[in-house]
Amino acid sequence: MNRLIFSLLGWMAAVSVVAQQPLSEADMVALALANSPAIRASDLSIRQNQQLLKGAYTIPNLDVFTDSPTGNFYTIGVNQSFQLPTVYKRQYQLQNSQIGLAQTEKRITENDLRFRVRNLYLALQYGEALWQQYQIQDSVYNQLRIIAGRQFVAGQIDYLSKTFTESQADEVRNQLVQARTDVVTVTRQLQQLLGRAEPIRAAAFQRNQLNVVPSGADSVAFGQNPALAFFRQTELISQQQIGLERARSLPGVVVGYYNQGSRETETSLRFRFGLTLPVWFGQYRSRTTAAQTGLQLAQQRTAAQVQTLSVDLQQAQGDYLKFRQALEFYETTALRQADDLINTARRLVESGQTDFVSFLRTTNDAYTIRQRYLDALRNYNQSVLTINYLTGNL
Hints:
The protein is of the alpha+beta class. The chain has a single domain, classed as Up-down Bundle (Outer membrane efflux proteins (OEP)), CATH 1.20.1600. The protein has 8 helices and 4 strands, in the order αααββαααββαα. It has helices spanning 2-11, 25-34, 37-51, 85-153, 159-194, 226-248, 281-351, 356-390, and strands spanning 63-67, 75-82, 252-257, 271-276. The longest helix has 71 residues, at 281-351. The protein is rod-shaped and about 130 Å long.
């Protein structure tokens, strides 16, 4: 038994899962962006707003009418009204800003999609690493179950040792099945986002290499968070809306052609010129006031977004510091201690200084440390992703 245990423990480090070539995180993000209906919808929204740009110079329809100025015959007349050039200029600027808003919405969609794909990629890396560990542990414990059964029949161990070994093996097998189910579920989610049916495997589980924004109260202000850019763009649109409403309250111009007299009236006397006077000041005042309120609303929403991002970023930065410390502990101390536990337990079993149950309990502790290391690595990478998502740097 001792030799078999020794060989199993030495074999654990060499076990690996045979699978297809892994995809990098960047490859998965690129595939998801290329196959996303949400991104295509954002592109169509941008195109639609660009198409509306020419409509910023829309002129009212031409009025064509017939009239009998003398009561003896009918004449045809035309009228055309215009706003002042300032109105059309401000409408054009406003529509340009609407294009910018649509582009910012696309950035939000891209940022959210990148974050979602990277989160799933992290879940797949963690799931595959955990599954591989349980595969190793399951192989070892299954062999130990067989050995314990034989030794119980031979009278070398008692019923408690046999039952404890079986329970540990069953628990590991249960964890293995659950880990495999998690991997399958995450893989299917990624396949859906990437638009591919081929099997997907992640690269080796390691530290996230994305840069991290240093902690500080002004971190959000220097970030590229697209949601914050969206609210700032709505502020700009609200300001331009105020200018447009004020321009619309100015007089307009009317030109026309209308025969006011007999057929012999000179052509030069048939033209008419005039102004459209905004005598109903109340409606213009109310629209301008509403636009000013809209600006205040946009400013408060921007302030609320800054507040929310600041709080979330502080939490993410705190998590980053906490999980970085935990990860460094496992990498510098705990993993070495786990190896020491396994090696010591092996030597004690080989020399007959410990029993079967103590050996299993010690190796369980070592595997628990390794699993906690995987948890710490996942939490650390998650905190890095969250910080970069909040600052718009994914």
